[in-house]
Amino acid sequence: MYVGFVGLGVMGQPMALNLARAGTPLVVWNRTPARCEPLRAAGAEVAAGPAEVFERAGTVILMLADEAALDAVLGRGTPQFTARVAGHTVVHMGTTSAEYSGSLQDDVRAAGGRYVEAPVSGSRVPAEQGRLVGMLAGDDDAVAAVRPLLAPMCHEVFDCGTVPGALLMKFSVNLFLITMVTGLTEAFHFADRHGLDQRLLRDVLDAGPMASAVSRVKAPKLLARDFTVQAAATNVLENNRLIAEAARKADLASPLLDVCHALFGETVAQGHGHEDMVAVLRALEARTDGAAAVAARAEGRA
Fold first, then answer.
1. pLDDT tens profile 169-214
2. pLDDT score at 292
3. Is 233 exposed, middle or buried (0-12, 13-18, 19+ CB in 10 A)?
4. Average pLDDT in the chain
5. Are the C-beta atoms of 28 and 5 separated by less than 8 Å?
6. Which of 17, 22, 90, 137 has the fewest Cβ atoms within 10 angstroms?
7. What is the DSSP string of the chain?
8. How does DSSP assign 60-128, residue by residue?
9. pTM of the model
10. What pLDDT sits at residue 161?
């Protein structure tokens, strides 16, 4: 029986490639057909559309950008939904609100299917290396069946109980990631505007207790002003929004996240949403330059 994979974006394509290279019989589809060609070359079969994926695969992995894309692929709200998911296991690996995931599980179950949340932690490079961290939630039998499929994509997988436990766990992880990378970026901005050697900053950070796999990837990008996407600023902003909404619904304070939300909003508004998340540097620079201009005008008036 084939495994289906729908959604071959920045993350989905390398994930699916790792599955194909591990010998998993795959049938894939992506809205942009050209994204399927590396999978075809790796031995996967390319479907004409989502319906064909469900016709040929008992388990279908969805790595899609948002809730609207998920609903469209599943045919949710149409007669096609039951035809697609009945007797299938739907594996949701993207990032949506916890409430959406819970309601989707209810609909999949009602239609005679099984549902597993399986979001991952990591960006493009870990996806290429098969070094993502997976989080699973759902009924025990469905989770047990899906877990082996994640092995070519994830170096560790954690059980997070019932839906939406995996997504809430990912939100917790991403809250740390977003604030950490923003802090690292602000440190490089601080050093730059004080005329410090940013290469030395990188070396000091690498030698100290704050060094991490994330800092060792992002610091060289900041040093080189390399904004090539690993995790796009637009996606980070969307993740930030989802986490902030989950915090508000639980009456939780999230002051660091809220500052990051504003900064990433400014980054995207300035036209840098397609760049890597370290492009938040551009928002910091704009704030600094704007404050300097205001100060200069004030000094001129004085």
1. 999 999 999 999 999 999 999 999 999 999 999 999 999 999 999 9
2. 78
3. buried
4. 96
5. yes
6. 22
7. -EEEEE--STTHHHHHHHHHHTT--EEEE-SSGGGGHHHHHTT-EE-SSHHHHHHHEEEEEE--SSHHHHHHHHTTTSTHHHHHHTT-EEEE-S---HHHHHHHHHHHHHTT-EEEE--EE--HHHHHHT-EEEEEEE-HHHHHHHGGGGTTTEEEEEE--STTHHHHHHHHHHHHHHHHHHHHHHHHHHHHHTT--HHHHHHHHHHSTT--HHHHHHHHHHHHT----SSBHHHHHHHHHHHHHHHHHTT---HHHHHHHHHHHHHIIIIITTSBGGGHHHHHHHHHHHHHHHHHHHHHH-
8. EEE--SSHHHHHHHHTTTSTHHHHHHTT-EEEE-S---HHHHHHHHHHHHHTT-EEEE--EE--HHHHH
9. 0.92
10. 98
The alpha carbon torsion through 101, 125, 131, 198 (nearest 10 deg) reads: -110
Structure-block tokens of residue 153:
């994509």
Please give the Cα distance from 61 to 101 (Å, whole number): 14
Q: Is the peptide bond before 152 cis (omega within 30 degrees of 0)?
A: no
